Amino acid sequence: MGCMRTGASLLLALLLSAPAAAQRGGIDVKDYLFSITIPDSGSAIHGHTNLHFERRVPEDSVLTLDLVGMTVDSVLLLGVPHEASRRFTYDGRTLRIPLQASHEPGLNVVIWYHGSPQDGLIIGPNARGQRVAFADNWPERARFWLPVVDHPSDKATTVFSIGAPTAWRVIANGTPVPAPGGLRASIEVHPIPAYTMVIGAGKFAVSRHRPVINGRDTIPIEVWTYPEDSAFADSVPFRRATEIVEVMQRLIAPFPYEKLAHVQSSTKFGGMENSSAIFYAEKPYVERKMGEGVVRHETAHQWFGDAVTERDWPDIWLSEGFATYFDGVIGAALDGDSVLVNRMRSNAEAYFKSDVIDRPIVDSAYAADPIKLLNANSYPKGAWVLHMLRGLMGDSAFFRGLRTYYQTYRDSTATSEDLQRVMEKAAGADFGWFFHQWLYQPGYPQLDVSWRYDAGAHHALVGITQHQKPEWGVFRLPALTLEFRGPAGAVTRRTVSVTGRESSLNIAVPFAPAEIRVDPDGKLLLQTTATGRR
Q1: How far apart are CA 59 and CA 71, in angstroms?
Q2: pTM above 0.90?
Q3: 348 pLDDT more than 90
Q4: Is residue 164 within 8 Å of 201, Cβ to Cβ?
């Protein structure tokens, strides 16, 4: 058995945990303690939040928190003179608490509030007709039930203390700890983004799968379902829940949290990677259509998206592109390389058919509307960026770089530029051109390939034209494979470099080719629109 930490030691770890990214205005929220009472009927909740924050500069300023549609009963700023301790303004969307230069740099504030959440916390009947409550925060919907800095740049540790009907079970981020008065409490000692700070409550069946053993630590692996769906969940989508974690540990690092719970839920998205408590939509369970792919995807998010979080929404591919790619990588580790090959083929097809090919992956125009970033750029094209980078670097340097990236930015936030710097160092190469063309240019290479054969010289004279839209730019393809096929099954391959819109290549080929296949192994995100003799 691993060493299980007590509630007291977890509280100490919470207070001593590493800092997360800074909030706007030089204020950094470090810890949240959320107390929520869920009613037996109706949707009105009562809550109070005790949060600890630090200021980087001792000056008059304002602590600004997102909170929508609640009634704020009172606010108490601890450790300051009485006349300044209860001041706040609230306009129904933003809670503002004035701070003075003379206040201590680190302070706690307690907020009492109540109301019926318009969004974010869903209370009502599930697909089986039973009353449940589930948080559904992504992208910026925690603010409908929690006073938070509702942006991925400000990560913090959490304590949830939940009052709920006695027949219910409650799941939240982190490790369950004892709590008085029938409350259910859970502590997450690692900083996490607000969009993954969640609770789920209702009548669940809970099955415990083989835990992950990391030295003296034991990571429980649990499956929380509606009782009617428990047998299906254990035997189909979550049959290899432990093995999926173990593959990610071998490739990247030990599991980043204290437990992993897979939870059936009545929430908006097919899967939501809440830190240590992944929520999955209920309908695929009920219809018996849920597969393992979404489990691999959401589990990979625990490392990329949760532990290492995009600093701002335009870099969401650092979350979704990684999870999409590792779905295939984990599948390949468990069932053979064909899983990844087929995944990348379907990813390419999905991207080519999408309506975002005229937009780049890192798309600042959608920063204020992150729902629009849940598109084929962030998911399948993002996965392809990693796949092509792996091909460019080789497996050893690629995974070494990803492990360093993870270790450097774990429990914090990162940008695409951060990933680029780490991968360049791992490879000892400049990848500025690669990241520019695949992240900041729209589109992909579309190639016209033609050739003629010089029988006397035994050379194929190959012309390659990039004929994609001019606004997509020109792509550099330093290792494009051409496969020459000739009579009687003769085959030879050559690797060439394409750097401009027009390329003319003189390639030694021992026979007159009848056909040229471009990128025959599907290692690049491109389309060949025409091939033929000149």
Answers
A1: 29
A2: yes
A3: yes
A4: yes
